[in-house]
Amino acid sequence: MPYCTKADLERRYGKPELIRLTNRGRDGSLIHDETLSAAIADADAEIDSALRQGGYAVPLDSVPPEFTRHA
């Protein structure tokens, strides 16, 4: 279960910012989903690693809202 989704990031940062961060020289009007998915996966892995180091089992049954904000 991902800690955040594309929709979460669009609500928080807005579509123009996600286009700017993910587009990398492609058509400047679209969010590049592959790049965004990779960034979400990286954030998930980092959070899971910290949880494992703290002795927690992952994946979590439910995602606390603050995890979504940090992801």
Compact overview of the structure:
The chain is mostly helical. The chain has four helices and no strands.
Keyword list:
mainly alpha; elongated; 62% helix; 4 helices
Can you describe what's shown?
With 71 residues, this protein is an all-alpha fold. Helices cover 62% and strands 0% of the residues. The protein has helices at 6-13, 15-23, 33-53, 65-70. Helix 1 (6-13) crosses helix 2 (15-23). The protein is elongated and about 45 Å long. The two termini are 12 Å apart.
The count of helical stretches stands at 4
Estimate the global geometry from the Cα principal axes.
Answer: elongated
Radius of gyration from CA coordinates: 14 Å
Which percent range describes the beta-strand content?
A: under 5%
Gap between N and C termini:
12 Å
The parts where pLDDT drops under 50 for at least 5 residues are none
Helix/strand class: mainly alpha
Residue share in helices?
55-70%
The helix-strand sequence is HHHH
**Mean pLDDT across every amino acid position:** 92
- Biggest pleated sheet: none
Total strands: 0
SSE inventory with pairings:
Layout: H1 6-13, H2 15-23, H3 33-53, H4 65-70
Helix pairs in contact: 1-2
